[in-house]
Structures are given as C-alpha cells and as structure tokens.
Write a structure and sequence with these properties.
homodimer; 5 helices; 6 strands; about 20% strand; binds manganese (II) ion; binds zinc ion; DNA-binding
DNA sequence: GTATTGACTTAGACAAAGTCCAGGCTAGGA
DNA sequence: TCCTAGCCTGGACTTTGTCTAAGTCAATAC
C-alpha cells in the first residue's frame, strides 16, 4: 500500500496523516467498507480525523482510479481497493458478506445489437446474490 | 393494470384511491421511477396523497412481487413494474436513461464453482453502462 | 532552520432519501 | 347503516452524503 501512497505523491498529492490512515484502512482482499466503516476504523488510529476528510479522501481515490465505488443496494456506497483487477461481486442476502468473483466470458458480448438501443456500451457490472455457507445452514 | 388491482384485492388488499393512483402511475414500458417521482405524478391525480403512503404502497408492491426495486447508483431506488419478465438494465452515463434489456444466456452459468465460495446462488443482476444516441453525439 | 503559502482538515450546518409514529379516516363486511 | 381493522396523514426522526468558513500544516524556497 505504501507504493500506492508514493504513486499518489508523484501525482502531486500532499501526503497527510489523514490520507495515509484512510489508505491503510482500505487494505486487504474482499474489502468493501462503507464510508462510515472507514471512518470508524480510521478513528482508531487517528482519533481526530473527521467524517468530511474521509469522504473527501475516498472521493479522490475514486477519481484517481485507485479505489472503486460499489453500490450494491440502496444503502451506503462501499469502497473497494481492488481497482486494478476487473471483477464482479457475490453478496450474501442473509448477512451482507461480499466476495470478489471472476465470471467467465464478457457479459457485454451477451447483449445482442438489437438489445442495445443504439447505445455505445462501456461496461457491465454483475451482482450475484445468494446465501453464504453460514447463512444457508438449516 | 386493473387486472393487477383485482389480483391484489383477491389477496386481501384493501383498494384505496391512493393505492389505485400509485399503481396507475407505474404503468408502461421501461418505467423506472424514483419514489419521489411516483409521488409527484400521483399528486397530479390525487393532490392530498402523502409521501409516506407512496413509500408504503411501493414497499407492499415489492413484497408482493408485483414491482421490482432497482438500485443502480448510490441515489434513490427506482421502482419497476416489469416484474414478471426477467430482464437486466442498460443505463446512459450521460442522462441516466434506463432501458430494459435481455442478454443471451444465464449469467449464473458463467460463475464457476471455484468462484462461488460455497454460496447457494439465487440470482444475478447485470447493469450495462454506456451512452445513449443523444448523449453519444459529438 | 525558518518563513511562506496554497492545499488540506475540521466542526457543524445543510440536503436528499427513507422510516416511523400518533391520531384521524374509510373500505368493505355484518 | 354501522363498525372496525386496516389505511392514510403530517411531521419528527434517521442515515448517508455534501458544503463552507475558518484554522492548520506539508512541502518548497531561502
Ligand atoms: Mn470488489
Ligand atoms: Mn426494468
Ligand atoms: Zn451470510
Ligand atoms: Zn443519455
């Protein structure tokens, strides 16, 4: 993750303790935290960090293409540090757990020209829903 | 749509003018209105209808399986009367226009067992993004 | 090391989307 | 026609996110 910080500094990003902490919180696999969850974890390390700064920093990371914004339900957006490997999401309807998944083939190819309404298509997001092993137990 | 109302009455739904108006507003193809848009249109026909009733009625229609809830971005949920024909959505990144589309094949089949993490998968939603003919013009 | 400065951070006000409640109203059955 | 369970209403409240004015500080220049 420190290579990320160096990369951003090279792009003229001022490296503050707040930004460093937000970047540290967003570290790992299958990480899809809401802004408030990021804030709660950031406060553990830097008690005075504000909500506004967390929102600002997340927004900047999204603009820079280093973090993805994922809207899986009508609730809070989730922030996903796995921005450099295309993937889709599998979500448990019971507990909300989210996993990164990699389906085969390109979903865009499955949309015939007659179903495109003249649109220029740029991407497709797939959300799989189901029950995780814990929630599926009788 | 009145067959819908009769069907619901058969299920013990009390048929009020408010519910009738909400059902009428949600009529047509490629209809994906937000709750506030439904309310604004309902008020044209029944000026005293409240926001709470629109939310309640939409929620009931979703529970009854007569309307789908679509969360395409982090904004307001959209309500889709096309609940009886499986379909996916194509959204213009420029103006937000939404079209119903029917891709070929089953997206669930594209997810190998090794990518399912032991989940029991129940469905998949695909959101295609692009630019509509108007927004793609130079 | 110190000064400078524009970018950054903060607290809190504000806004949009949605939920909840007490009290009044009414559709539909008796 | 009357009764009442279920429905509706206005408004308070919650969650999620945005904006702003004023204070702070990272990085550069000296
Ligand atoms: Mn992800
Ligand atoms: Mn639809
Ligand atoms: Zn689960
Ligand atoms: Zn458009």
């Amino acid at each position: 993750m420190s290579d990320l910080l160096e990369r951003l500094r090279g792009r003229g990003w001022r490296l503050t303790s707040q930004r460093r902490v937000v970047a540290e919180v967003l570290n790992g696999d299958h990480v899809h935290l809401t802004a408030d969850e990021v804030h709660a974890r950031a406060v553990q390390r830097l008690p005075e960090i504000s909500r506004a700064t967390v929102y600002n920093t997340l927004g900047e990371l999204v603009t820079l293409g280093e973090v993805l914004e994922v809207s899986t339900d009508g609730r809070a957006k989730r922030y996903d540090p796995n921005a450099h490997h295309a993937h889709q999401h599998l979500i448990c309807s019971g507990c909300g757990a989210i996993r990164d998944v990699h389906p085969q083939g390109d979903p865009i190819a499955a949309l015939p020209a007659t179903e495109r309404f003249g649109f220029v298509i740029s991407g497709a997001e797939v959300t799989y829903r189901g029950l995780c092993p814990d929630c599926a137990r009788p």
